[in-house]
Amino acid sequence: MPSQHYIELDKERLTRLHEGLELLEMVDRDHVADMHLCVFGLTSDRQILDAAREAIADEAELDENDVQLTEVAVAIPISSDTIYALTGSGIRLKNEEFVYLGGGGKGARSLSFTFAHYKPTVNLNAFSKLGLASSAGYVDEFLLKEGSKQTAQITPNVHRTEEATQPGAPAQPAQHPQQPGMPKQTSLDAKFFDEFLD
Questions:
Q1: Residue 186: inside a domain, yes or no?
Q2: How many helices (H) does the chain have, and how many strands (E)?
Q3: pLDDT by residue (tens digit) across 3-30?
Q4: What total number of domains does the chain contain?
Q5: Model pTM?
Q6: Is 110 within 8 Å of 99 (Cβ atoms)?
Q7: How far apart are CA 160 and CA 45, in angstroms?
Q8: How far apart are CA 97 and CA 114, in angstroms?
C-alpha cells in the first residue's frame, strides 16, 4: 500500500501527462474520463481564497468577513483539454472541490466552489504545489502533507438576546411585547392560579 495516495507534479511532468492523456483519449475518451484523475493544487491565490471564503460563509450562513483563510487545496478533475487550459489561459472554478483546515481541531474540511457566487479563472501560476491522484477524495491528505498547517479563522457574528449592560451590572431581562386582547399577567395572577389548581 502506498504511503500517500498522490504523486507530486511540476509543470514538466504535467506537460508529459497532457501528451499521454491525449493519446489515450484518441483510443477511448470515455475510459479515460472514467479514471477520475485529479490534479491537486495548493494555493494562497487571492481570487481562489475569496471564492472559498464566500463558499464557506454561504454554506454556514455567515458573513463573508467572518471567514479568514490563508491557503486551500483545490481538486481539479482533468483531461487533456483541462491540462491544456491550465497551462495557458486558465480554467474557471465552478463545482471543483477545495479543502481547508478548520480551527478548533476540526481538521481538513471539504467544500465545493458551487456554494460561491464568484467563480475565479485560474492557471498553473495560482498554485505553489501540485499533485496527481486517482480521486478527489485524497485532496485532504495533500493539504495536510503539503500545506503550512495554518487553520481558517471562522468567527460568526455575536447576536445579542439581551441588552448590553455596564460591567458589574446585572443584565435586564428581555421585555416581551404584550399580546393584544390578553390581560397583563402579574405575580398575583400566578398565585391565584396556583391556589385554584390546589
A1: no
A2: 5, 10
A3: 689 999 999 999 999 999 999 999 998 8
A4: 1
A5: 0.74
A6: yes
A7: 36
A8: 9
d(CA 136, CA 148): 20
Residue 184, in any domain of the structure: no
Provide the grid cell at 174: 428581555
Cα 154 to Cα 144: distance, rounded to the nearest angstrom: 19
Residue of 89, 75, 81 whose CA lies nearest to 29: 81
Q: Which residues of 111-132 are buried (b: 16+ CB within 10 A; e: fewer)?
A: bbbebbeeebebebebbebbbb
Please write the tens of the pLDDT for every residue from 154-197. 887 654 445 555 555 555 555 555 555 554 444 444 454 445 44
Residue for grid cell 483519449: 25
Q: How many CB atoms lie within 10 A of CB 160?
A: 8
What residues contact residue 162 under an 8 Å CB cut-off, 6+ apart? Answer: 171, 172, 173, 174
pLDDT at 81: 94
Whether 171 is covered by a domain: the verdict is no
Over residues 40-72, the pLDDT tens digits come to 999 999 999 999 999 999 988 888 888 999 999
Contact 83, 69 (CB under 8 A): no
Contact between residue 143 and residue 42 where contact means Cβ atoms under 8 Å apart: yes
User: Can you give the residue range of the structural domain that contains 45?
Assistant: 6-148
